[in-house]
Amino acid sequence: MIETTVLDHLQPALSVPVYMEYPDRAPESFVVVRKVDDSPDEHINYAAFVLWCYGGSELGCAQLCQQAIDAVDSLNALPQIVRCEHDSDYTDPDERHKRNRYKAEFDITYYRD
Q1: Taking a C-beta distance cutoff of 8 angstroms, is the pair 27, 17 a contact?
Q2: Which domain does 32 fall in, by range?
Q3: pLDDT by residue (tens digit) across 83-97?
Q4: pLDDT computed for residue 94 by the predictor
């Protein structure tokens, strides 16, 4: 599963917790990774991912977002990843939880497991 590949790669690469959904007891800084689109093929798949980077300040979110971008970019070194491209990143305040947040978007092309 590409979700576990991304999650397993990000967890040790970042100094903050990484989740697949907003946690019940959210720490000050953390990352939520979510697959938002998937286009399967016989052997090669395409998936779009977003990373929401939370922090105590907008600057903290921006710094964490850059660390997360660097970590996701390093997915290109994995044999099952054909291409990992960073599309965009920007401030995206979380109105529901009243938190600072940055959002990064990625497209990942990968070999199916």
Answers
A1: yes
A2: 2-111
A3: 999 999 999 999 999
A4: 94
Distance CA 50, CA 43 (A): 23
pLDDT digits (tens, 9 = 90+) for 60-71: 999 999 999 999
Domain of 47, CATH number, reads: 3.30.2000.30
- The number of distinct structural domains making up the chain is 1
Phi, psi dihedrals of residue 3, rounded to the nearest 5°: -60, -45
Angle of helix 58-73 relative to helix 2-13, nearest 10 degrees?
Answer: 120
| φ, ψ dihedrals at 64, nearest 5° | -65, -40
Q: What pTM value is reported for the model?
A: 0.90
Beta strands per DSSP E along 67-111: 81-91, 100-111
